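Recap quiz, item 2
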Amino acid sequence: MTISLLAAARARRHTRNRTPGTIHLRCLTPDDGRHVTDLLKRMSPDSRYQRYFRPVHSFRPADIARFVTLSRDHVAVGAFDGPSLIGIAQSLRSSKQPDRAEVAGEVADLHHGRGVATRLVNELAELATDVGVTHFTATVLTDNRPVLALMRSLGWPTEATLDGAYAEVLLTLPAELALATAGRTAMDWDGGWQPRGAVVAS
Ligand SMILES: CC(C)(COP(=O)(O)OP(=O)(O)OC[C@H]1O[C@@H](n2cnc3c(N)ncnc32)[C@H](O)[C@@H]1OP(=O)(O)O)[C@@H](O)C(=O)NCCC(=O)NCCS
């Protein structure tokens, strides 16, 4: 099944299966540009810097288009709390090494530490495995403790190469993911889950 079909099926599931307090995951669609802009507003300057390595105040239309245009090579999964996009994980396959994809992500500050990124990255890994990706690569700041903790907590074989303030990380996706996703159809999608912790304001 192609990513775009998965995205459409998951988007449908999202609208059918809403439970208050439940976070829903689905692939982003071209209609999600506004949500991507709103998510940036829910990130502190520090979080923006950790994600983009520079101060980011807004996105240009071309930046947004890159987020929401999906293909076999670019997958973007969003976590939604009701209508609000609270997190994204995306992967971009390397043209030189097609079994590798660069991964990046962010979660709205108010929702940090609730397991949202863990869930997003696991889902992204399943989708990437579906299209033959075996490794994720990531560039992260060496002082970004949350993302390093996230990578450790995934429990996947990880290698890191330090380069000044940055670390180049290579994550080996678990072989079981290929087995878990083999034969899976879009309708097997779990429409939502209850994250850890309570969010007191939004
Ligand atoms: C990195 C980031 C995506 C993590 O998102 P999150 O939803 O808070 O992560 P999770 O709740 O899934 O936590 C994953 C693990 O990291 C740990 N963790 C999360 N934040 C932490 C922190 N501030 N300090 C220490 N550990 C932390 C969690 O305890 C969890 O481990 P566990 O499963 O063993 O308990 C989020 O902090 C973020 O958006 N940061 C800004 C953008 C960024 O840095 N992006 C990554 C660069 S591409």
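The helical segments are 3-16, 33-41, 45-52, 61-68, 116-130, 145-154, 176-181.
The CA atoms of residues 129 and 155 lie 17 Å apart.
End of item.
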